[in-house]
Amino acid sequence: MYFGNTSANTLTLGPLTVYPITFTVCSDDTVIEGTYNQKISFSGASSPVVQGNVNSINVTISGIPVPTFSVDDPTTDVLSGERFSNITITANAGGTLYYLIKETDETTTSVSFTALKVNVTVNKLTIESQRDYLTRIYDSPRDRRIGAIAVSAGNPTDIVFSQYFPGTNYLFCGYLQTKDESSRSNLICRRIVTPP
């Protein structure tokens, strides 16, 4: 193992080393951004057989980027008795995307992160349904769904959207919460038009 970008700074394992072995760099949550020159110490059962020719390592702590994501236009995936489309999400950080999809001409909404997360937690994923038209008459669209999906940084993730009205305006809004739940995005909304 080399420290830095030169083979002159090495970590050598003794002849009696049992593999696999691990090397751990530890920190705590009180560290602030900056570069630190940390002393290296070998401890535990490995210390007699681990040797290095350097006694410190430079560690740089940088800020965590604010989580964000982009939403592509929906694309038709499968044609069958129902309509299915994929809405592709690309996030800049790994975590969970809590989202709302609703039929509307609006370009934004005031849904809170807590409302989305609580409803997902109790498995209440349909807030308003088109099926309500069978029992009541409404003067506005009745298609509002929520959900959550795991995403990883830089990898496009598809959300399957089914039983939608074709060629109709929908609003997709969501919050991206990092995997360790230490940070989340602001509400990000995008108006989408479903495939015809």
Word description of this protein:
The protein has two domains: 11-61, no CATH class; 69-193, Immunoglobulin-like (Sandwich), CATH 2.60.40.2550. Helix content is 5%, strand content 39%. The protein is built from one helix and 13 strands; from the N terminus they run ββββββββαβββββ. The chain has one helix at 113-121, and strands spanning 11-13, 34-39, 50-52, 56-61, 69-71, 75-79, 83-91, 95-103, 126-128, 144-151, 157-162, 169-178, 188-193. The protein is elongated and about 70 Å long.
Which percent bin holds the helix content?
under 10%
CATH architecture of the largest domain: Sandwich
Main beta sheet: strand number and arrangement? 5 strands, antiparallel
**Widest β-sheet, arrangement of strands:** 9-10-8-12-13
Distance between the termini: 57 Å
Bin the strand percentage.
Answer: 35-45%
Number of DSSP E strands: 13
- How would you classify the helix and strand content by structural class? mainly beta
**SSE string:** EEEEEEEEHEEEEE
Cα-atom Rg, whole angstroms?
A: 25 Å
What is the CATH level 1 assignment of the largest domain?
Answer: Mainly Beta
Please give the count of helices.
1
Mean pLDDT: 77
Q: Summary?
A:
The protein is mainly beta and 196 residues long. It has one helix spanning 113-121; strands at residues 11-13, 34-39, 50-52, 56-61, 69-71, 75-79, 83-91, 95-103, 126-128, 144-151, 157-162, 169-178, 188-193. The chain starts with 10 loop residues before the first strand and ends with a strand.
